[in-house]
Write a structure and sequence with these properties.
This protein has 177 residues and is an alpha+beta fold. 23% of the residues lie in helices and 22% in strands. Residues 27-35 have low confidence and may be disordered.
Length: 177
């Protein structure tokens, strides 16, 4: 199975020398000391997508569950612009679907093509595949008085207009033009 890993440019040299170490994986620069965990085990994050751009369904779910608008240049990991490629056999027991560990957490919808690798990936299995555009952040349109954990609904047609960039904050609409 061909899978991809995204990282910041300043990490590439070290990764290509030492490989992807599961105990070094983290979500962001701020938590770089905290390993990404899969069911309590450190893991390397991988995806089936080589662009890290969200699907329309992902954007729709972000809007409904969190009242967040993902713009046309949004990427799941906005600082991670280098796409690394790795081939891992589907029968490798260390390769597991992300939802196996997050089942029932409410996050399954976000990650339909994301995987965890419960081991280190050696440098000789990795190659720089391409650069992806620097991501743009999202816009939070949640009302200030919205209760935590609620799902959001919109007037008929408004959800489609928001997702198409015909409605929303001016900067969001401009980003779609």
């Amino acid at each position: 199975m061909i899978l991809y890993h995204f990282t910041r440019p300043d990490n590439v040299e070290s990764i290509l020398e030492h490989g992807l170490k599961r105990d070094h994986a983290s979500w962001s620069k701020e938590d770089s000391g905290n390993a990404l965990m899969a069911g309590g085990q450190p893991a390397v994050w991988l995806t089936e997508e080589d662009d890290n751009k969200p699907t329309l369904e992902y954007r729709r779910q972000m809007l409904r569950r969190f009242a967040l608008l993902a713009g046309p240049k949004y990427r799941h990991l906005c600082e991670s612009t280098v796409c690394l490629r790795v081939i891992i056999p589907t029968h490798d027991r260390k390769l597991v679907k992300l939802s196996r560990f997050w089942r029932g957490s409410g996050a399954d919808f976000i990650h339909p093509k994301w995987w965890f690798y419960l081991g280190d990936i050696p440098a000789n299995k990795l190659a720089v595949f391409k650069q992806v555009p620097l991501g743009v952040t999202w816009w939070d349109i949640k009302p200030k008085d919205a209760p935590p954990g609620c799902d959001f609904t919109f007037e008929p047609g408004l959800e489609s207009d928001l997702l198409a960039g015909r409605a929303g904050p001016p900067e969001y609409i401009e980003a779609h033009n």
